[in-house]
Amino acid sequence: MQDIFLFITRQLKGLEDTKSPQFNRYFYLLENLAWVKSYNICFELEDCNEIFIQLFKTLFSNLNKQAFDLAKVLLKRTVQTIEPCIANFFNQVLVLGKSSVSDLSEHVFDLIQELFAIDPNLLVSVMPQLEFKLKSNDGEERLAVVKLLAKLFGSKDSDLANQNRPLWQCFLGRFNDIHVPVRLESVKFASHCLMNHPDLAKDLTGQDS
């Protein structure tokens, strides 16, 4: 069964060439996978990680808008079932430091941002891992996480600060970070965030403390 799904996933690479005479065939395949929720079956397999890692690599390396939009539909329709697998992948990379898990590992923060834009619920179990990283002893590592969270908290439609107060409070603590670049990044974020989220002004200006 695993080999079958890996084979199906590899077929989606055909979406890269929109001028190919076979493009409609691959597009139809993705469309059906999205609406029938075919990948839900994978969770009955002992090791579904390989399938989903290959799926993520294929979908997010494809720049065709129509295919990408359908890929987003696929993820949204399988949030509850696919979220544990996503959490496991990021746990191996962020917490356990297994960068060899996938070629995606070096783009882990970009991937988190993409998934958050599709549906924040895909990352429910990943947020505590980011909080863990915010407390890292490595200043550069903290800086990378602050830059990522600045985008997630500051995006116009984001409600992450209200939905995850522990992570938000931990993030605010970086304004007093011993690493100067982290403090500078935090200040830069504040001015941008206030434009999109004036309701967070008290938190950002320290008036609640």
Automatic annotation (TrEMBL):
Designated name of the protein: Uncharacterized protein
Domain of life: Eukaryota
Gene3D superfamilies named in the record: Leucine-rich Repeat Variant
Sorted UniProt keywords: Cell cycle, Cell division, Mitosis, Nucleus, Repeat
Location of the protein in the cell: Nucleus
Cellular compartments per GO CC: chromatin; nucleus
GO biological process: cell division; DNA repair; mitotic sister chromatid cohesion
